[in-house]
Amino acid sequence: MPTISLQQWNEFIKDCPQSHVLQSPAWGELKSQFGWESCWVVHGKLGAQILFQKIPLGYQVAYLPRGPISSGGEVFGHPDWTGFQNDLDVLCRQKKAVFLKIEPDCWHENGSADCSPPDGYKLSSHSIQPPRTILISLEGSEEEILGRMKSKTRYNIRLAEKKGITIRKLDDVEPFYGLLERTSDRAAFGIHTKEYYRKAFELFQKIGECQLFLAEFEGLPLASIMVFIRGDRSWYFYGASSNQHRDRMPTYLVQWEALRWAKEQGCLSYDLWGVPDEDAENLEKNFTDRSDGLWGVYRFKRGFGGELKRVCGPWDKVYQPALYFIYTLRTRVKAG
Questions:
Q1: Superfamily in which the 3-127+312-335 domain is placed by CATH
Q2: Which of 103, 111, 156 is CA-nearest to residue 131?
Q3: 157, 161, 165, 168: CA torsion to nearest 10
Q4: Which of 186, 203, 297, 313 is the most exposed place for a label (fewest CB within 10 A)?
């Protein structure tokens, strides 16, 4: 098989310090404990962590999140791309993958980056990770970061401090998960199990790449977020809040403290991870009237003064066309 060992992947990724956290060995270990199998392919200076999940009839789906990665040069125009793709094909066919989905780690820059799929791939309408986000620059002083925010967001951060909100770092997920359950019930969205968040926190905290923050008022938990870092990048993946004392703006202060922490760790960017997949004009036109899906969080996230970004893809390479058609049809039905 064209795969390498976890130890070899650890060695390869050391030369890719700016690779996305979803390509890290810790993320592969996390997913392998919750229904996925992690495999690693390296060809020359290109490599990827690929996740496989079983579906009926002995088949699987293959998923390459925020990769491939490279220890030198561009990825999709790299001289090693053909050989790397051949290795991916061999692995996916051996695993009886219906298709391989790639969600690359590259931004769609109008005119400055070619976001068309590589040969053999097709643009997919179904993404696993949110394709659009807001990216906050952590460059400059804290006052400069605050200065790039909306005035109302700066006001809410300072109001939270004045109204007695305190922030502390957590060493376990219990308070976080308690808030997450209440948020899920209120907003009607799905969450992982407590064990999933506990394992994620344990795996990344022990290597210094994760921190949990909790906002409280007089000892009462009000908001909590889990933040990941790798290299000079950071990501806000998971968050939860209570309906109590919302007028004290705890969600704003907890994000600000997480931003400050990420900056202290040497990060240059903070990814707010997920807003509606609409262009800036539509987002600004509709965010005051909509609260479905990610619209509610966009209203909150836009205030932190980041840049609206969209990743390229997702791209699918199909190995079993008939089964792929059935799979995508079921995906659309579930989404509808």
A1: Gcn5-related N-acetyltransferase (GNAT) (3.40.630.30)
A2: 103
A3: 80
A4: 186
